[in-house]
């Protein structure tokens, strides 16, 4: 998808309305239109990147600082919330909008939201050799 068709690029350009929290030359924080919980908002770069796998490093450095700022602001706006940050990279990870975005999701006691883990996944720890094998696979992988 190019920036021309991208819904978040349209939000950046003001072609689609959004409720902005803050913005600067590089990024924009705005409310998610389908909030999972009250306070759910998004942080995006103004430049179009699909996700963390193709994003520019200098932009990412800026974004992490602003993500922390947004987390602190949401935390200050509410009492007793935990803040979940999530980024989906790719369709199989659940990414629907193919423009890099960080979710800022307030979590409250007994809210009806969370990652779904497979049944019984903690029944046994992974054997050390298996962890070494997988770590080796990742360690030795070269970026595409
Ligand atoms: P994803 O599933 O790609 O990680 O998350 C995309 C997020 O964008 C969803 O939480 C969805 O509610 C939000 N979203 C989709 N379209 C719009 C829109 O037009 N405006 C806003 N503010 N949020 C949107
Ligand atoms: Zn875009």
Question: How would you describe this structure to a colleague?
Answer:
This protein has a single domain, classed as HIT family, subunit A (2-Layer Sandwich), CATH 3.30.428.10. The mean pLDDT is 96. Strands 1-2-3-5-4 form a five-stranded antiparallel beta sheet, with helices on one face. The chain has three helices and five strands. With 144 residues, it is an alpha+beta fold. It has helices at residues 7-13, 57-77, 128-139, and strands at 20-23, 27-31, 41-45, 82-86, 102-107. A hairpin with a 3-residue loop joins strand 1 and strand 2. The two termini are 19 Å apart. Residues 3, 6, 8-9, 48, 99 line the site of zinc ion.
Provide a quick synopsis of the model:
By secondary structure, the protein is α+β, with helices and mostly antiparallel strands. Helices cover 28% and strands 17% of the residues.
Feature tags:
single chain, 144 residues, alpha+beta, HIT family, subunit A, five-stranded antiparallel beta sheet, 3 helices, 5 strands, globular, binds guanosine-5'-monophosphate, binds zinc ion
The largest sheet is: 5 strands, antiparallel
Termini Cα gap: 19 Å
What's the multimeric state?
single chain
Radius of gyration: 18 Å
Annotation field: number of helices: 3
Ligand identities: guanosine-5'-monophosphate, zinc ion
As a percent range, the share of strand residues is: 15-25%
- Write down the CATH class: Alpha Beta
How is this fold's topology laid out?
Blueprint: H1 7-13, E1 20-23, E2 27-31, E3 41-45, H2 57-77, E4 82-86, E5 102-107, H3 128-139
Bound molecules: guanosine-5'-monophosphate and zinc ion (ZN).
Zinc ion (ZN) is lined by residues 3, 6, 8-9, 48, 99.
């Amino acid at each position: 998808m190019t920036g021309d068709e991208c819904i978040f690029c349209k939000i950046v350009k003001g072609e689609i309305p959004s409720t902005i929290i803050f913005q600067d030359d590089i990024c924009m924080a705005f409310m998610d239109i389908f909030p999972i919980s009250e306070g759910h908002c998004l942080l995006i770069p103004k430049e179009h990147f699909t996700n963390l796998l193709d994003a520019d490093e200098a932009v990412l450095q800026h974004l992490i600082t602003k993500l922390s700022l947004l987390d602190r602001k949401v935390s200050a706006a509410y009492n007793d919330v935990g803040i979940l940050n999530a980024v989906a990279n790719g369709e199989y990870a659940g990414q629907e909008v193919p423009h890099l975005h960080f979710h800022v999701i307030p979590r409250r006691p007994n809210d009806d939201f969370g990652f779904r883990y497979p049944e019984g996944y903690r029944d046994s720890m992974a054997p050390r050799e298996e962890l070494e094998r997988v770590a080796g696979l990742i360690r030795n992988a070269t970026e595409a």
